[in-house]
Design goal:
Rossmann fold, globular
């Protein structure tokens, strides 16, 4: 999937749309399994993407990604924005918080935000 995005989708996007072409301006994002894939794609194709918006990622599907990600050198100014909802299962939310701390310890430029849902009357 990541290879398809980099080699097929992105060249077409750049051909058809007026977008900035540099790595600095190229991010990827997704939620749940898409969040996991966005994170993976950022690490694997770090020469192409400078950041990822990782919303409520399904890290539990592939816990090995932590060791791989922390052992893979990244280019400077690589950014990860990790967002979770306050209504996530407590185990998942705690896992996201711990993940954010671990990645910061190994030098990731990571922003973690936990979003509380808006209440309606």
């Amino acid at each position: 999937m990541a290879e398809f995005i980099v080699n097929d989708v992105m060249p077409e996007v750049k051909r058809q749309l007026r977008v900035k072409r540099s790595r600095k301006h190229t991010y990827i994002g997704g939620s749940s399994l898409g969040g996991l894939m966005s994170f993976y794609t950022l690490i694997e194709y770090n020469h192409f993407f400078s950041g990822a918006l990782v919303y409520s990622p399904a890290f539990w599907i592939n816990p090995e990604i932590f060791d791989w990600a922390t052992q893979t050198p990244l280019k400077k100014k690589t950014k990860v924005i990790l967002i979770s909802g306050e209504l996530e299962h407590p185990m998942i939310l705690d896992g996201h918080k711990k993940t954010a701390k671990q990645f910061k310890l190994v030098g990731f430029s990571l922003t973690f935000e936990s979003i509380e849902p808006k209440r309606t009357a």
